[in-house]
């Protein structure tokens, strides 16, 4: 895919939604950090249901640390791998208090030293909480980058590096959200909504669908 196509793709995504917003609910960088840790292998909806109740009781490193693992687990039991995530969040709270004056650090290196925080989580926090032009590559963005030809790569790091290289600077801040929302609701893993996709004519995917998925589902077998 050439640079002209890429720029037009992001121009259209920007025109459709100038300032996209993620679906995780949070009120501070710390609340976002906890929510993103919880979101691994879980839906944003399930995380929001858990954190709405949790944050009424505890929404700072000190207050969550005071809950302890046993006190935190009941709030997040609806989420997959909740026991491991509870241990990581408690350990993260302690490190934030001991090493970062109870604040969320603003560098990838420092974030990745926190239990339960990998490259993707760090990039999400840096981008959303601190406005840094990072691009966190999740399954949706990995799929779109390879399927459309925007930034093909064998692994998430390769795709991230290509996105940072190819996405025009003016669009980098919101590229993460545009791509993840496009992948979640339009360029889906199964039955992508190609007929209604606003970048279908620019996309280099050879297997474009010709019928809206809703109609495909209603079709009766021959």
Topology at a glance:
Elements: H1 3-16, H2 29-39, H3 44-57, H4 61-76, H5 82-100, H6 108-111, H7 119-128, H8 139-148, H9 156-166, H10 172-185, H11 213-218
Helix pairs in contact: 2-3, 2-7, 3-4, 4-5, 8-10
The major sheet is characterized as: none
Structural class: mainly alpha
Low-confidence segments, given as residue ranges, are 216-222
Number of domains: 2
Describe this structure in words.
This protein is mainly α. The protein has two domains: 3-19 and 135-215, Endonuclease Iii, domain 2; 29-128, Orthogonal Bundle (Endonuclease III, domain 1), CATH 1.10.340. The chain has helices at residues 3-16, 29-39, 44-57, 61-76, 82-100, 108-111, 119-128, 139-148, 156-166, 172-185, 213-218. Helix 2 (29-39) packs across helix 3 (44-57) and helix 8 (139-148) packs across helix 10. The longest helix is centred in the middle third of the chain and has 19 residues, at 82-100. It is elongated and about 55 Å long. Mean pLDDT is 94; it is low at 216-222.
